[in-house]
Amino acid sequence: MKQEPIDNHIDDPVETKPKDEKKTEQTEEGGQFNCALCGWSERYHGHGTSLSFARGIVFNEDAYAMRDPFVPYGQNLYFFLGAPCSACQRLVCTNCSLFYSKRFCKECALKHVQHFPAEVQKKIRELGTNKSE
Ligand SMILES: [Zn+2]
Ligand SMILES: [Zn+2]
Fold it and tell me: Could you tell me the distance, in angstroms and rounded to a whole number, from the CA of residue 28 to the centre of ligand 1?
């Protein structure tokens, strides 16, 4: 015998759109961001060149970002986590990559270091000597 779920919900005759505060944290959007180089992992809420929670912001890469959990939805605040390397396509965090017209992971940047301008080469070498353990 099927048990009916207890439902106190009364159908609202007026269609009221729920406000943003009704949004739960358990939305299905996003997933787990995993850096291919350092293994850092963080939840992301969306990726692409534009994000629903960063309206008006256009990324010139497939950006992976997390909504800032400490601000109400809709304030366009987000954490940029990383993006795929344009050369090897691996997903890398900002600490393991740099953006110079395209996203390059540490390894690809080092491989092509001579193609970058001097100031960028310096940055690449800093990536190469990762101080975080
Ligand atoms: Zn990383
Ligand atoms: Zn790469």
Answer: 24
- Give me the residue spans of the domains in the chain: 29-130
| Residue 120 burial (C-beta neighbours within 10 Å; 0-12, 13-18, 19+) | middle
Ligand 1 centroid to Cα of residue 100, in Å, is: 17
Interval between CA 53 and ligand 1 midpoint (Å): 23
pLDDT tens-digit series, residues 15-38: 555 555 444 444 457 899 999 999
- pTM score, two decimals? 0.71
List of residues 6+ apart from 94 with CB closer than 8 A: 80, 81, 82
